[in-house]
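note to self: dont lose this again. the chain is below, predicted strucutre after it. 85 aa total, dont forget to put it in the shared folder this time
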Amino acid sequence: MSAHLPPEALEAWTRAACDRLGLDPAEVDISAVLDLARDVAHGVARPAAPLTAFLAGLAAGRDADPGAAERAIATASDLAKNWRA
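---
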């Protein structure tokens, strides 16, 4: 199987993962998550991308506000873009 999924396969994966995890796929902004991963991979290090996505999700999950996910992604992305080790 190719490591590069067509967009419809990524959407199908997201729906399946959300179903299994008890999440609403309508609440997942795939583009924002991928942009975050790109920013972290380029601004920090590739292995930091999945870790940061997890941390942003954890932060968003601890905040009951509907905009928590967007804020967590934006905060982490901004940190990555301005990262100086």
